[in-house]
């Protein structure tokens, strides 16, 4: 299923090239504004300028994979719910949630390679980045990215299922995109957010989608204990949200049976 | 239905003005249809408009968070940035409202549904522009206007007649520039296939850049957005004049007033490219 998801997105060659171009352009624009900001306030949010620039370019590289701007499979789930095709999916021998998780991870793997590598290289050539040389750090980062993608999936699965109750998903998808963009660290690293509000957003699941993997890569969590706490935070949210998805799914399935009867 | 309709159509099609009128009429009808269909899910529409306004508001919140740590960014204060932010947000919002779905052309080429548009008696551009007309985009316009109004109300500017006039001119001409970029982007999709995102980098990306003062960016980038894709005319040059700041790249002061002309000049190649695109179109046959 994951391989299928990968191949499906790999057929959109031009769309991917266009996406790479867009991510690179946005990366440049944001990078310039961060340079101006960190010139003014060195060390803001606990990052030096090179780390802030790394934040920009790695965010651009992860953007499509983690579906931070929306998009992805949830619209398809909503469409299948609206048309009733979902009934067919429910009779399949495979578990619905795992089925979509596999497909979404395949999509994400493709987008990480297809839309992630080139913008990051462009950024690394044009700006001084603070990418770590330590392979262990990259390994931790990879684990953290997989957890980030899982948390992102779990949230979007809930959005998809919401269509059982709200026939049209456009509104809720839009609201979800708003929250994701703001609370993941996409607009500004969450460590820059002031006071109690900053602390709150750092505890929410969206921070597991971008802020945490970046902090793992930049090594801002000191030592093995720090990294373990960061990954544990992500894994905790992944389990809670996947569990919630499962509960909603069974509630929704019962609803389908009632409608069908 | 009027009896002379057929006759009138034939006469109209030969004249350019008639075609424009037909285009506008078709556009209006399609837009009205989409508005009715949006209103069928009223709660979802309200949520989507609200979401649209909040999405754009959150960019501004991020800027405000930046300014909670600093006094000035690139030498510009928060109200000055608010003016830049608001004007380009409204311009892009207007262009997006009227022409935003032209980026779906790639999709239509791929699934063959463009063919149906070609046989209808309404110019294709009008149909493509009105396709899935999204009234929720009023959300961004409203939010942009609010930020712009706030910026203007707290700025200390020596208002002259020229400056007062320049604000609405800049917003409308800016919308025209973005609209021309959207048409050119749609034309590009005839060659490049599904490349809607390239268009996004000039429109949304351009607007993200124009929110910040030009002093933040490198000279090469400034040259690019002044002389190659003249986005600097959307709000930078006019707004710098309003704020009484020096124009970048050593351009003369009067360039601040050129935006409407730039919008017009940009439309010429964009519409030519669009025509060439429609002519070169070969159906996928599906």
Notes on the structure:
The complex is a heterodimer of chains A (261) and B (286). The model of chain A has no long low-confidence stretch (mean pLDDT 88). Chain A is 75% helix and 0% strand. Chain A contains eleven helices and no strands. Chain A is mainly α and 261 residues long. By secondary structure, chain B is mostly helical. Chain B is built from 13 helices and no strands. In chain B, α3 packs parallel to α8, α4 runs antiparallel to α8 and α9 runs antiparallel to α12. Chain B is globular, with a radius of gyration of 20 Å. Chains A and B meet through α2 and α8 of A and α3 and α10 of B.
Please give the alpha-carbon distance between the first and last residues of chain B.
34 Å
Biggest interface between protein chains, with counts per chain? A-B, 38 and 44 residues
Rg value of chain A? 19 Å
Low-confidence region ranges of chain B: none
Task: Describe the protein's topology.
The complex is a heterodimer of chains A (261) and B (286).
Chain A: H1 2-10, H2 13-40, H3 49-63, H4 74-83, H5 86-91, H6 96-126, H7 135-162, H8 170-183, H9 195-203, H10 211-218, H11 223-260
Chain B: H1 5-14, H2 16-39, H3 42-67, H4 78-99, H5 105-111, H6 114-119, H7 124-130, H8 138-154, H9 161-192, H10 196-210, H11 219-228, H12 236-243, H13 259-280
Helix pairs in contact in B: 1-2, 2-7, 3-4, 3-8, 4-8, 4-9, 4-10, 9-10, 9-12, 9-13
């Amino acid at each position: 299923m994951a391989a299928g998801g990968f191949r499906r997105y790999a057929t959109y060659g031009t769309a991917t090239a266009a996406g790479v171009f867009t991510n690179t352009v946005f990366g440049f624009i944001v990078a310039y504004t961060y340079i101006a900001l960190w010139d003014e306030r060195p060390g803001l949010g606990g990052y030096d300028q090179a780390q802030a620039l790394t934040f920009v370019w790695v965010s651009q590289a992860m953007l499509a994979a983690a579906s931070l701007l929306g998009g992805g499979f949830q619209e398809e789930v909503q469409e299948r719910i609206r048309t009733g095709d979902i009934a067919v999916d429910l009779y399949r021998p495979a578990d619905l949630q795992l089925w979509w998780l596999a497909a979404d991870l395949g999509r994400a793997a493709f987008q990480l390679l297809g839309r992630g590598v080139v913008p990051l290289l462009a950024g690394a050539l044009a700006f001084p980045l603070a990418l770590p040389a330590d392979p262990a750090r990259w390994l931790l980062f990879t684990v953290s990215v997989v957890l980030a993608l899982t948390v992102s999936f779990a949230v979007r699965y809930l959005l998809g299922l919401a269509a059982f109750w709200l026939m049209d998903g456009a509104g809720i998808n839009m609201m979800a995109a708003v929250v994701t963009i703001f609370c993941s660290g996409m607009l500004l690293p969450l460590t820059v957010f002031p006071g109690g509000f900053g602390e709150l957003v750092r505890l929410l699941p969206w921070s597991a989608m971008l802020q945490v993997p970046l902090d793992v890569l930049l090594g801002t969590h000191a030592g093995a204990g720090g990294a373990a706490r960061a990954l544990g935070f992500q894994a905790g949210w992944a389990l809670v949200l996947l569990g919630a998805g499962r509960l909603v799914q069974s509630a929704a399935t019962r609803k389908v049976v009632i409608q069908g009867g | 239905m009027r009896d002379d309709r057929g006759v009138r159509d034939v006469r109209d099609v030969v004249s350019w003005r008639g075609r424009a009128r037909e285009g506008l009429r078709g556009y209006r009808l399609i837009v009205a249809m989409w508005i009715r269909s949006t209103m069928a899910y009223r709660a979802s529409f309200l949520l989507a408009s609200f979401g649209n306004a909040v999405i754009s508001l959150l960019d501004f919140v991020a800027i405000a968070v930046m300014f909670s740590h600093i006094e000035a960014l690139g030498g510009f204060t928060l109200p000055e940035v608010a003016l830049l932010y608001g004007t380009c947000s409204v311009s892009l919002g207007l262009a997006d409202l009227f022409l935003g779905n032209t980026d779906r052309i790639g999709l239509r080429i791929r699934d063959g549904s463009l063919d149906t548009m070609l046989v209808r008696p309404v110019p294709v551009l009008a149909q493509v522009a009105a396709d899935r007309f999204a009234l929720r985009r009023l959300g961004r316009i409203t939010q942009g206007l609010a930020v712009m109004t706030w910026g203007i109300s707290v700025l200390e500017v020596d208002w002259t007649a020229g400056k007062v006039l320049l604000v609405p001119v800049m917003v409308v001409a800016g919308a025209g520039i973005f609209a021309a970029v959207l048409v050119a982007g749609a034309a590009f999709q005839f060659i490049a296939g599904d490349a809607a995102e390239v268009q996004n980098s000039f429109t949304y990306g351009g607007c993200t850049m124009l929110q910040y003062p030009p002093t933040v960016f490198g000279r090469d980038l400034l040259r690019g957005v002044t002389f190659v894709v003249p986005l600097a005319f959307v709000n930078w040059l006019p707004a710098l004049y309003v704020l009484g700041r020096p124009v970048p790249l050593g351009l003369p002061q009067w360039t601040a007033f050129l935006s409407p002309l730039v919008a017009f000049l940009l439309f010429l190649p964009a519409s030519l490219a669009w025509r060439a695109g429609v002519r070169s179109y070969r159906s996928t046959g599906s």
